[in-house]
UniProtKB/TrEMBL annotation:
Its main location: membrane. It comes from Paenibacillus pseudetheri. This is EamA domain-containing protein. Residues 12-140, 152-284 form the EamA domain. It is a multi-pass membrane protein. Keywords: Membrane, Transmembrane, Transmembrane helix. SUPFAM superfamilies: Multidrug resistance efflux transporter EmrE. Belongs to the EamA transporter family. The chain crosses the membrane at residues 12-33, 69-89, 95-116, 123-141, 153-170, 182-208, 214-232, 244-263, 269-288.
Length: 304
């Protein structure tokens, strides 16, 4: 299978996505609203921004099979669960610690594609992954702690990481049969609906929030979601889910730097060193795993 080429070089597009998602934790820390409200409006506002451009994809939407709709709703449910758990974790632990744990996503992705698509990872790619994860551990090492709050935050982040890995694996299979834009829109609407149901059941207020909170909800929709998640979903048609998820390893670096500048969270020399290791490991993985993209795309198409 011959892969299409994106309009801009993939490394540039990935860097834009990394910077965008690095702001996510900052905006969440600035908000006092419940995580489920932040997640709901983040996805709802993103969907509203996307709707004016959705008419082009109406034909593709009507062509979707019942199985596709079930998988889309499942993907949206996993995305909502990811946001609920990970955004909730930031209420209990630091940006560095929470994003460090979330950066373990490629481990779950790698296991998933092995069992689902029989994708084997080169030894050199595993080495790059190990270096990057080691760097992420350095970033969060000084902040994990052993308090009950920190432990709760760590467990929530782990749960959110598993959920987003499942979301990515479902997306990898779906975007080979439908436009990535349509995929993102339906999944975001599904996730917003899941959040709405959750908030109704839990009795969480929908509208009683000050103006600055609404501004944060909008920022969450535009910056990390449009220029982060939508961009990464779009990249799934050019590279594998494993490669896209590897870029999450760049988030602890960007988020930790922003947390230092904007929130006053201190970084140790070990954490700075970890940031360098993350970027080095990311480079090793992307170089070693570039040929696997074509192999995975063929495996997914054959399984469809």
């Amino acid at each position: 299978m011959k892969l299409k080429k994106p309009p801009l070089p993939i490394p540039i597009l990935m860097m834009i996505g990394i910077v965008a998602i690095s702001f996510s934790a900052i905006f969440i820390k600035w908000s006092a609203a419940p995580a489920s409200i932040q997640g709901m409006y983040r996805l709802l506002f993103t969907s509203l921004l996307m709707l004016p451009f959705a008419r082009t994809y109406s034909g593709a939407a009507f062509a979707l099979r019942k199985k596709d709709w079930i998988m889309l709703v499942l993907s949206g449910t996993m995305l909502a669960l990811h946001f609920l758990l990970w955004m909730g974790s930031l209420k209990y632990t630091s940006v560095a610690s929470s994003t460090m744990i979330m950066a373990l996503e490629p481990v779950f992705i790698m296991l998933g594609v092995y069992f689902l698509y029989k994708e084997k990872t080169a030894v050199s790619a595993i080495l790059g992954l190990s270096i990057a994860i080691g760097g992420v551990v350095f970033i969060g090492w000084g902040d994990i702690g052993i308090s009950a709050d920190n432990l709760k935050g760590d467990l929530l982040s782990i749960g959110g990481t598993v959920a987003v890995a499942v979301h990515m694996l479902i997306g990898q299979k779906l975007v080979v049969r439908m436009p990535s834009y349509l995929y993102s829109l339906i999944v975001f609407l599904s996730a917003a609906g899941v959040f709405a149901i959750y908030n109704l059941i839990m009795g969480i207020a929908f509208f009683n929030y000050p103006a600055n909170e609404w501004g944060i909800f909008l920022l969450l929709a535009v910056v990390p979601t449009v220029f982060g998640h939508i961009l990464f979903n779009w990249l799934l048609q050019y590279v594998s889910a494993t490669t896209v998820s590897m870029n999450i390893l760049g988030e602890p670096v960007g988020a930790s730097i922003l947390a230092y500048l904007l929130l006053g969270e201190q970084l140790t020399a070990l954490q700075w060193a970890g940031g360098l290791l993350v970027m080095f490991g990311l480079g090793v993985y992307l170089y070693a795993g570039r040929k696997k993209t074509i192999q995975l795309a063929d495996a997914i198409q054959n399984a469809s």
